[in-house]
Automatic annotation (TrEMBL):
It comes from Acetivibrio clariflavus (strain DSM 19732 / NBRC 101661 / EBR45) (Clostridium clariflavum). This is Uncharacterized protein.
Length: 324
């Protein structure tokens, strides 16, 4: 995704409707080619994009489905909306030049979401920033001709003798915990309900960035530096790290990650490592006799997928179904 910009918004449960999204959709920032959507445990469907189909499918999903994934995309950029049990995660990627032309309108759209107390947290950053700050595979970084001399290496947690990048040292690394984002990047919005994790006074106390304002609702908008494309300047990396240090982003995220999981009987498990067929991730989906996803304790078989992550996308390299 050359020169791409990423926008992510975590909406609160029952706080997202088509009426909220239609203003953004009307900006027409992406020349969509296809639509892909999935209802609950049913197989995904893919169709050629049209504005009428986009509206009809998205309205139906928002109105009638408890869990779904909706995606519209072209060759590089996409609009992705998965609905989970407690939140929506709206994820949009688009061309950097188009973003700059529409920046004022996009900021108003996001400000309105947080002024209406619809969101937990949101952020905008350059795709290269969030991508390379969160990759721990040194060989892949070298293969893509990315600078690596400054990176700190640590032993691989599972494989003796192997080293990986310690992304915890990267100012722009992110954590997604319980469907909430914890990180530091160019532009960020924090809703009132987010303050139970990171207190508002800590966010307000950060004075080293370009902008830190309180919205009418009490939510806050923070810009770390002026130019989104200047993320890799040393002075901006310093600001990025200061923000996460002052707010305690990593302390809170690590504490949440280390708590016992709430779901002790999962339907899906995702493991990291280096597996038999070359995958770096393994996804286990627990199934009943009808091949429907079910809790692990009730499953009669498990589908095991090995996955390789290539340019921030998942590619399945093997699938096996094993009786339990």
């Amino acid at each position: 995704m050359e020169n791409g910009v990423i926008l992510k918004i975590v909406f609160k449960k029952n706080c997202l409707s088509y009426d909220i999204l239609k203003w953004f959709i009307a900006l027409d920032l992406i020349d969509f080619k296809n639509i892909r959507y999935k209802k609950g445990n049913k197989p995904a469907k893919e169709i050629v994009y049209s504005k009428e189909k986009f509206d009809m499918i998205l309205i139906d999903l928002l109105k009638n489905e408890d869990r779904f994934i909706f995606e519209a995309y072209d060759n590089q950029y996409d609009f992705c909306l998965p609905k989970k049990d407690n939140s929506f995660l709206l994820s949009i990627s688009f061309n950097g030049e188009i973003f700059i032309k529409n920046k004022t309108k996009l900021f108003k759209f996001i400000d309105d979401i947080f002024n209406n107390d619809f969101g937990y947290v949101a952020f905008i950053c350059h795709n290269d920033d969030i991508t390379w700050q969160n990759i721990n595979d040194l060989d892949y970084i070298k293969a893509k001709n990315q600078p690596y001399e400054h990176l700190k290496l640590i032993p691989h947690p599972y494989f003796s003798g192997q080293m990986i990048v310690d992304i915890e040292q990267n100012p722009g690394h992110s954590h997604m915990v319980n469907d909430l984002w914890f990180g530091s990047c160019w532009a960020m919005w924090f809703g009132n309900d987010y303050y139970q994790y990171i207190p508002e006074n800590l966010i307000a106390s950060f004075k080293d960035g370009y902008e830190n304002i309180q919205l009418d609702s009490g939510a806050r908008r923070v810009l770390l530096y002026e130019d989104i494309f200047s993320f890799d300047k040393p002075e901006n990396r310093i600001i990025q790290k200061k923000f996460r240090d002052i707010t305690g982003m990593d302390v809170v995220a690590h504490d949440l990650m280390n708590r016992p999981p709430e779901n002790i009987d999962p339907t899906i498990e995702i493991l990291n490592g280096h597996f038999e067929n070359g995958g770096t991730k393994m996804m286990k989906r627990y199934l009943n006799n009808e091949n429907e996803i079910i809790e692990k304790s009730k499953a009669v078989k498990v589908e095991i997928r090995e996955i390789e992550v290539i340019e921030n996308r998942w590619k399945t390299i093997s699938i096996n179904v094993v009786d339990i």
